[in-house]
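dumping this here so i dont lose it
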């Protein structure tokens, strides 16, 4: 069955999703519509055969799946704008809007029959099709949820969670990118101190972290199992690990994760 996908909001996230979905051959250009107030910013997509529009209502009328990729403060106005074109028996809404809950979307939509809504929380690695995307849904059937899961699997990996865990997922999967980058930066600085150039230290640090992550993903092992393989008695690895722990490495990271989560909760 052929589906048409409309992305409302052709900014960085919407454009990254479009690029990943077309490059992975999940959809073809003619199956995709992207909207943005400034259509000139989407001229490159038009040249590729993608339907580009400034008319959200018309874009929704031709869609099966509608991806909301706009700023949180824009959601209410856009939903009210497209509401006349929404068909609960046909459309599925996918929201990648940070911090907007499904119940908030339903309050604006206010239709008698529930529209299937799937909320997705990707991270910035979606730009290179390596996102960790958390999904939750309300009113979507098995086929619709499978389609959306398959869609985001083209852009990285997915996991289905309860919506109450979305804030925690934001910390672990989105803030986590910054936490990992800070570790890599520190590793680079240490590498420079022991003799490498910045460029070489950066390459070694980044590839090592990438390889470590792939070990866990491909082997489905626990980090301690992989750590044990490189820690020999009286070796340099265990010496370094112990010094880091004495300095509060793990506890600082855990406290950072919890602090970020509490910040989200306090701001609600």
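and the seq i came up w/
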């Amino acid at each position: 069955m052929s589906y048409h996908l409309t992305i409302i909001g052709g900014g960085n996230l919407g454009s990254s999703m479009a690029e990943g979905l077309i490059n992975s051959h999940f959809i073809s250009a003619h199956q995709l519509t992207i909207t943005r107030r400034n259509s000139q910013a989407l001229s490159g997509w038009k040249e590729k055969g993608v339907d580009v529009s400034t008319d959200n209502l018309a874009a929704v009328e031709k869609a099966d799946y509608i991806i909301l990729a706009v700023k949180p403060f824009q959601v209410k106005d856009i939903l009210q704008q497209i509401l006349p074109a929404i068909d609960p028996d046909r459309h599925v809404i996918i929201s990648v809007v940070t911090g907007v809950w499904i119940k908030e979307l339903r309050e604006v939509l206010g239709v008698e029959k529930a529209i299937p809504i799937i909320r997705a929380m990707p991270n910035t690695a979606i730009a290179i099709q390596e996102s960790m995307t958390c999904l939750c849904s309300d009113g979507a059937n098995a086929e619709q949820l499978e389609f959306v899961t398959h869609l985001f699997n083209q852009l990285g990996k997915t996991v289905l969670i309860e919506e109450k865990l979305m804030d925690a997922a934001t910390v672990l999967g989105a803030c986590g990118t910054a936490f990992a980058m800070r570790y890599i930066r520190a590793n680079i600085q240490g590498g420079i101190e022991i003799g490498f150039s910045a460029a070489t230290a950066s390459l070694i640090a980044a590839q090592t972290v990438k390889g470590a992550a792939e070990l866990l993903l491909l082997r489905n092992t626990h980090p301690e199992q992989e750590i044990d393989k490189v820690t020999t008695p009286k070796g340099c690895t265990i010496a370094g690990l112990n010094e880091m722990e004495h300095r509060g490495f793990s506890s600082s990271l855990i406290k950072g994760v919890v602090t970020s989560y509490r910040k989200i909760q306090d701001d609600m």
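The mean pLDDT is 94.
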